[in-house]
Amino acid sequence: LLHDIGKPVADIAVVDAQGQHTWNPCDENITDWAVRNEIDRYFLRWRDNRHKRHEQFSALVIERVLTREARTFILESGPDIMQAMLETINGL
Questions:
Q1: How do beta strands 42-46 and 12-16 pair?
Q2: Which residues of the chain have pLDDT under 70?
Q3: Element (H, E) at 16
Q4: CA 8 vs CA 2, 25, 50: distances in Å
């Protein structure tokens, strides 16, 4: 389920209607960005040359999805499960 989690960072640009504001998913969530910039409608644009690029960005955003408690639980029995999960997410 998390294989494509890097797409919002690598493959998609989220912009306001005028194209003046672009969301940075590593900086803040999309709701906070929209409120801060008074945006009530945003648009998605596919970036050029995106084939498989998202796979390298998946590890960058995994902490936004897996809470600290979830990561702790996964690592309780050792690194094997986390390693297998990250390899799968990163397409290895």
A1: antiparallel
A2: 1, 52, 55
A3: strand 12-16
A4: 12, 7, 11
Smallest CA-to-CA distance from 24 within 49, 42, 51, 48 is with 42
Distance CA 30, CA 6 (A): 15
Task: List the alpha helices (DSSP H) in 15-79.
Answer: 30-36, 53-65, 68-75
Q: Would residue 41 be called left, alpha or beta, if left means φ above 0 and alpha means ψ between -120 and 50 degrees?
A: beta
Tell me the two tokens of residue 25: 């998913």
- pTM for this one? 0.67
**Domain spans of the chain, in order of start:** 7-89
Which tens digit of pLDDT belongs to each residue from 34-56? 999 999 999 999 988 777 677 67
Cβ pair 5, 89 in contact under 8 A: yes
Q: Report which residue type is found at 26.
A: C
